[in-house]
# Entry
Amino acid sequence: MPSARDTLSAAQARRIALAAQGFAEPRPGGAVDVRHVRRVLDRVGLLQIDSVNVLVRSHYLPLHARLGGYPTALLDRLAYAKGRGLFEYWGHEASLLPLALQPLLRWRMQRAERGESRHGSLTRFAAERRDYIARVLAEVRDRGALGASELSEGGSGAAGWWEWSDGKRALEWLFLTGRVTTARRRNFERVYDLTERVLPAAILDAATPDVGDAQRALLRLAARALGVATERDLADYFRIGGADARARIAELVAAGELRPVAVEGWDRPAYLDPGARLPRRVAASALLSPFDSLIWERERTRRMFGFHYRIGLYTPAADRTHGYYVLPFLLGDRLVGRADLKADRAAGRLLVQAAHAETGADHGAVAAALVPELRSLAAWLGLADLRVVDRGDLAPALARACRG
# Structure
């Protein structure tokens, strides 16, 4: 591994990052079990949750990218069943995280309680409706696990996707401050219960680390998951504020736990995880969720792969370049294309609504590699057919590869 004085080439940085994220190893050859899932989670640290279900809920996709077809019930059991190994909280965004990280995030819960949170609208609501929030908490304590729609005085939300009822706001504030957590999901709706009735006693009884210790631990995890990263990359992984991250990173560098390096083509300093691997080559082939931890930081994705990515579902239709729910395609150590995908469950088929190749990519080679990934994805989703719509510069080659 290069020394602190060395410069990494852009290709070396890519291979380090891909290895850190689990893409430098082959997928399991046999049945995938919970040990495989835990290993991925130990490596990436968390899975981002998103509500969009045009293909499949996003938190299931990163495991498929790294493991291939796997029973999604494995993740569901880890997240919500008795003896769970995961919990929900604000990690990157809304995330599933290993239980061991709960004490490391208590400083965030405590800051939210003091009104120091990036969730400004919830902070304002809490300041104005303390008595109401106390009544909601008492109702959860008395009645047990509840969804927002089950509260006796939940209120009604205004029209709009993100317009929550007062009851939902109260529960989300209690979730943010750690007093309640997700007991289970019902049709993807959070069902909340007191944290002490959901999480294991061993986690609840664990000592609360000093803020600095907790932030350093989270940044170590981020460094391990990223391999090589800028200050902004490291801070973004667990959404640690800039001033806090800057101070903690300096401390980790001074302790020899992060190694400053320069990366070819990067316009800012980088930091190398001392335990990072630099494989000779990466032979990955995977479709990536828009919220996969390899690519969720868009500026890093551009810097690392030369790949400009803006997710279409948050973009007005007239401004979408590549489609609505577009998955980048990783081949080797490059992002070589993208496919706009939809699960047409009624017809039992996976729709490729558009397919595009990156500039300079060999359309035939990309299509030949992409078809097996699409068929694997379709089979995993229980879809018997694959249909390619003639939209995008890669679509003709992809349609030919499908017929072949």
